[in-house]
Specification:
The radius of gyration is 20 Å and the shape is elongated. It is an alpha/beta fold. Helix 7 links the parallel strand 8 and strand 9. The strands form 2 sheets. A 6-stranded mixed β-sheet has the order 1-6-5-2-3-4, sandwiched between helices. The model has no long low-confidence stretch (mean pLDDT about 90). The longest helix has 23 residues. About 30% of the residues are buried.
Length: about 220
């Protein structure tokens, strides 16, 4: 997808900065609960552990499903489940829940390093909320050699892993969304170009337009 979107005049390397380890969680009764998924990994581990949501709205104990991100929504669809609400990031979801779903009881299936956005806001509004880690994220802290013009981040944990041994100050920086952008700002004062849609396609469009503009600028300097 990246090669097709960016074309042959871009050179990209992919660096593994985190490792995902699924956790074994004994399935339990989900009746009367609303389910939150904030990553593809959470969806995969949830179903691999044998959980079985009930999405039949005509039945009494059905589960409403909330998702953060379009990729999470697509992963739920692969398993045959739709979503009641999809938001770009956790802050947007917390605001929606407070305004529209405050009487529901929420189970949040996520990773061990998931940000506490929901946990810090929903209980303060007397909303029932429980975080359930179904996978763990290990930071790999790679040391990167080579001459690069730009770096692109897809998660806060990826930022923390990369920044441990690598400087961001000489790079153009791209971010998948606002939450990841906030993490980048902890390590550099450089400008950050962030996808407003918080998805891969929009981010690739930004990378393409910015880099093509830079090429044109350099060509004009030579004329």
């Amino acid at each position: 997808m990246i090669s097709k979107k960016l074309g042959g005049h871009f050179s990209c390397d992919f660096v593994e900065v985190i490792k995902i380890n699924p956790l074994q969680v004994e399935p339990f009764d989900l009746k009367d609960k609303s389910l939150i998924f904030s990553s593809v990994n959470a969806v995969e581990s949830f179903f691999n552990n044998g959980f079985k949501p009930n999405e039949k709205f005509v039945e009494r104990n059905f589960n409403k499903i909330y998702a953060v991100g379009l990729m999470t929504k697509k992963e739920l669809r692969k398993h045959g489940f739709g979503t009641f609400k999809v938001t770009r990031h956790a802050k947007e979801l917390s605001e929606f829940i407070i305004d529209n779903s405050a009487k529901e009881k929420f189970l949040h299936f996520c990773g061990n390093l998931a940000l506490n956005v929901l946990n810090n806001t929903l209980p303060l509004q007397n909303i029932s909320y429980t975080k359930i880690p179904v996978y763990e994220t290990k930071l790999l802290y790679p040391e990167i050699s080579g001459d690069y013009d730009a770096v692109c981040f897809f998660s806060p944990s990826g930022v923390r892993s990369f920044a441990r041994h690598n400087s961001l100050d000489h790079l153009q920086i791209f971010s998948i969304g606002e939450t990841t952008e906030k993490e980048v700002k902890k390590f550099t004062k450089n400008p950050i170009i962030t996808s407003k849609e918080s998805n891969l396609e929009d981010l690739l469009n930004l990378i393409s337009s910015q880099c093509i503009a830079k090429v044109h600028e350099e060509q004009n300097k030579k004329l």
